[in-house]
Design the sequence.
């Protein structure tokens, strides 16, 4: 129900406390660019699950009650709050950026219930099937030039305009296509880019929610949720980068990972024994394919019981085996699912029941559904005591030498139908329901795992999660779940990973080669050409599918695979810089072209190219049979990575792209910090830095630390600044010296020139 006229208001610090006919609301200024809009009684407000700590900074605000409403000005943003609790935003020059739509929503004409039933009988679904009324909606005017980006891991292309989505963490292993409304993650944040403005909206609501980005009308877009309160943040900025900086200021940033996590990961559901793993490890080294990580899927557990080890298939002495693997440079990441097998005498189950750590039925019994181990209970991760218990349980895996934890099935997935909405969960210190906690289940599991690892291990925790909410980036990297070995899914990987990056999740990847269905040699060869650029670099496949380790398809494919894995290792110093930059600013590692070229209409709609930081552009081939492709290069001068050819953008060019070629371009004035490829990160000491230089005016910073722990936060890192001139000459300086093992040698490499040493 829309509120009535504004009756009264009071400015308390930076918050306008508003009394309308029919209810209360407030508008709070957190920073000059971030404004919160909340409807409800202040004392009923539930603390955010995405935002931790105090985010409000002192801002000099000016308020004025005018005829058209109450105006609040921060210097960056003006907000007008009018009768009916319409809230409009303006930029510092007074131009409207984001205003509430005053008309009535006009829901699309749909068929009657009778026809809906008929549709469903044949297995069809209408997009209205299962939809419920929203507890509130926010309807915003849509500019004709609007593009929408973000919204987490949604299917489809970069620009979300004209589509509608749902936020309800969903595990659906069918091939995920553009008609899927929801996947594993709920990140209710998007960036709106118009010809004149850019801003972000974060709706902080964990209930099932809807984002209709102009699918219903050309005049407006709307978002709303089935429960909870209207509570959203408007984030202003002069660019997408600034908006994302604001959003990640609010919800947190992905901390710098351990350096080895940026290497190659090999995984498969179905490495049934340690011998299988051994074979993979040898295969990697014999085929000269760098690899840092092997993942153990559910096969390593006893009867799929979490925190157990299958003594028969994964031998009695996993510790010794993992040590041997470690000696060869391999780190092991184990899967860890939330569903705890219901079994008398199983310690995790018994401890959980005894302490009341599992979700309960409304009658107070432990709630049971089924997952891999059969009947299973669900840890109540919203409860801090449960998180601590779960965090401490990681010791079992750390004791065996495990180096990272892969949290799966944490939507939570359940095999006997969805968990009823009234299943009782905890939200910190109060009782809650599945309806409210579903979308943060994976978030809290990741948090529990991260905090446990941080406490027990001390190094930077490496956690991968499938389900997320806004803010999960503080704890985990993520993969996009069960894709298939389909060209459509290779195509989707680019916008999906880029939109995750624009949603604050920079450390993401897809299952290279595809998880479900059988891959093909050509698909695998092309997928590795996208995968080597994705922040999380893992080949993973489902039980029963065709094997897709790099050498499964003969020499040609193995050679191509090796070429791109080695390229990745070569670039690890650059990747590491991007992660450092991300922790400072929130800028994603893998970026859509529009992130750097907002005004460029081609960049806004580009789905088959992307950037790695601001300096490298990749234009992979993502269609079967294609041996050349059109590449779009935005303004500026670019160098072809493979042949050094210079191209001036903006331009469309035709590039030959035989199976072993992924077109890659580097911006003039770039210095790419690289290293000689190694079989794994740390095989050889990182004592030589190779700067690949692309003439033009430019400068960039390069970051170095021990790649392992949190000492960098106490200043134990080195930072270099390099500049390059039009003639290709390079100069360097150290801008921060805190790491005890800086480079011994810095080499400048230019296309077609002899390497030269740089002395600084
Ligand atoms: C889920 C995961 C997949 C994993 C499988 C078995 O489908 O998404 O990655 O291999 O479960 O654990």
Sequence:
């Amino acid at each position: 129900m829309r509120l009535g006229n504004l009756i009264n208001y009071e400015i308390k610090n930076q918050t306008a406390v508003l009394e309308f006919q029919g209810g209360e609301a407030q508008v709070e200024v957190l920073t000059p660019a971030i404004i919160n809009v909340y409807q409800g009684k202040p004392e009923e407000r539930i603390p955010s699950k995405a935002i931790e700590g105090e985010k409000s900074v002192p801002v000099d605000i000016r308020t004025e009650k005018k005829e058209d409403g109450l105006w609040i000005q921060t210097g960056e943003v003006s907000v007008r709050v009018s009768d009916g609790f319409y809230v409009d935003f303006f930029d510092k020059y007074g131009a409207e950026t984001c205003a509430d739509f005053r008309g009535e929503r006009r829901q699309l004409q749909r068929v009657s219930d009778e026809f809906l039933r008929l549709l469903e009988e044949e297995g069809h679904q209408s997009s209205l099937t299962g939809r419920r009324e929203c507890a509130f909606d926010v309807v915003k005017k849509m500019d004709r030039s609007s593009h929408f980006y973000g919204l987490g891991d949604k299917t489809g292309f970069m620009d979300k305009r004209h589509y509608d989505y749902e936020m309800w963490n969903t595990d659906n292993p069918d091939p995920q296509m553009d008609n899927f409304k929801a996947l594993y993650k709920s990140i209710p944040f998007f960036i709106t880019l118009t010809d004149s403005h850019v801003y972000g909206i974060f709706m902080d609501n964990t209930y099932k929610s809807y984002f209709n980005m102009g699918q219903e009308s050309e005049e407006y877009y709307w978002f709303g949720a089935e429960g909870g309160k209207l509570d959203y943040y408007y984030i202003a900025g002069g660019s997408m980068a600034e908006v994302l900086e604001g959003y990640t200021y609010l919800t947190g940033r992905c901390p710098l990972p351990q350096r080895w996590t940026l290497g190659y990961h090999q995984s498969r559901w179905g490495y049934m024994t340690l011998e299988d793993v051994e074979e993979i490890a040898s295969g990697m080294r014999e085929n000269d394919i760098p690899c840092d990580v092997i993942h153990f899927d559910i096969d390593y557990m006893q009867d799929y019981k979490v925190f157990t080890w299958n003594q028969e298939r994964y031998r009695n002495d996993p510790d010794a085996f993992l040590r041997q693997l470690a000696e060869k440079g391999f780190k092991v990441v184990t899967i860890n699912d939330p569903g705890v097998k219901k079994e008398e005498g199983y310690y995790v189950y018994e401890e959980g029941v005894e302490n009341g750590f599992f979700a309960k039925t409304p009658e107070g019994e432990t709630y049971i559904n089924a997952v891999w181990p059969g009947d299973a209970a669900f840890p109540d991760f919203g409860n801090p005591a449960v998180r601590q218990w779960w965090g401490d349980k990681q010791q079992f895996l750390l004791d065996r030498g495990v180096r990272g934890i892969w949290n799966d099935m944490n939507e939570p997935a359940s095999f006997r139908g969805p968990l009823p909405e009234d299943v009782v969960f905890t939200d910190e210190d109060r009782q809650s329901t599945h309806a409210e906690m579903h979308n943060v289940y994976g978030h809290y599991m990741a948090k529990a795992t991260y905090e446990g690892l941080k406490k027990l291990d001390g190094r930077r925790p490496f956690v991968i999660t499938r389900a997320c909410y806004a803010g999960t980036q503080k704890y985990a990297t993520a993969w996009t779940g069960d894709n298939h070995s389909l060209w459509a899914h290779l195509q989707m990987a680019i916008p999906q990973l880029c939109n995750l990056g624009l949603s604050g999740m920079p450390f993401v990847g897809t299952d290279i080669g595809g998880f479900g269905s059988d891959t093909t040699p050509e698909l695998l060869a092309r997928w590795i050409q996208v995968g080597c650029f994705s922040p999380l670099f893992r080949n993973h496949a489902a039980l029963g599918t065709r094997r897709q380790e790099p050498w499964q398809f003969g020499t040609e494919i193995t050679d191509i695979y090796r070429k791109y894995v080695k390229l990745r290792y070569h670039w690890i110093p650059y990747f590491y810089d991007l992660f450092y930059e991300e922790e400072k600013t929130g800028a994603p590692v893998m970026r859509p072209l529009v992130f750097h070229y907002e005004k460029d209409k081609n960049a806004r709609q580009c789905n088959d190219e992307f950037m790695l930081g601001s300096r490298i552009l990749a234009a992979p081939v993502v269609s079967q049979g294609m041996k050349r492709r059109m590449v779009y290069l935005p303004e500026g001068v670019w160098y072809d990575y493979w042949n050094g050819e210079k191209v001036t953008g903006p331009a469309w060019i035709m590039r030959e792209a035989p199976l072993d070629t992924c077109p890659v371009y580097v911006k003039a004035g770039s210095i790419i910090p690289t290293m000689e490829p190694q079989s794994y990160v740390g095989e050889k000491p990182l004592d030589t830095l190779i700067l690949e230089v692309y003439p033009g005016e430019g400068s960039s910073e390069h970051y170095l630390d021990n790649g392992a722990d949190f000492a960098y936060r106490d200043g134990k890192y080195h930072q270099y600044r390099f500049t390059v001139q039009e003639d290709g000459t390079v100069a360097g300086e150290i801008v921060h010296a805190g790491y005890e093992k800086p480079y011994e040698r810095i080499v400048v490499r230019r296309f077609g020139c002899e390497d030269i040493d740089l002395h600084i």
User: Anything to note?
Assistant: The pocket of alpha-D-glucopyranose is lined by residues 269, 297-298, 335, 408, 466, 481-482, 515, 540 (CB under 6 Å). The CA atoms of residues 191 and 200 lie 4 Å apart.
